[in-house]
Amino acid sequence: MQYKERRRSVWHCCASLSIAYFWFHIRSSFLKKFCEDVLNPFVRVIPDVGDLNMFLDLNSSLVISPRFALLCGIRSGSVYRVRFFSGDSSSSVERVLEIVILSLEQKAGIAFITSLCAFNIFRESDKADYFVESITDLSSHLCVANEVKVSLVRSPLYEEIDFSELLEDHFSVPRLLSVGDIIVINSSQEVIGRTVQYLFKIVFLDNVGPEVTLIVDSKHSTLYQVGSICDRIWSPRGDIFIPPCYGELTSRIKSLIFAESSIFPDRPVTFLLSGQPGCGKRLFLRHLAMISNLNILFFNCVELSSDVPATFEARLANAFTQGSHYGHFTVLVFTNFNIIGASSAERNADIRILKFIEQQLVACDSLAVFFTCHSSFVDQLSPFIRSIISYEFILPNLNEADRREILLRIIKQPHSVDIDVVVRLTMGFMLAEINAVVEDAVFKQFEEGSAVLSMNHILWAVDLRNKTLSDEIGVPKIPSTSWDDVGGLNEVKTTICESLEEKFSDVDKHQRTGILMYGPPGCGKTLIAKAVAHHFQACFLSVKGAELLNKYVGESESNVRKVFEKARLAAPSVIFFDEIDAIAPERGRSGDSAGVADRMVSQLVAELDSSDNLKVFVLAATNRLDLIDPSLLCAGRFDKCIKVDVGNDIESKECILRALCRKVCCDKNIDFRRIVELQASLSDKRMSGSDLRAVVCNAVMNIVRTQIETVRTGGKLPEENTPVTEADLEKAMKEFDGRK
Question: Where are its TM segments located (predicted)?
Answer without folding.
Answer: 9-26
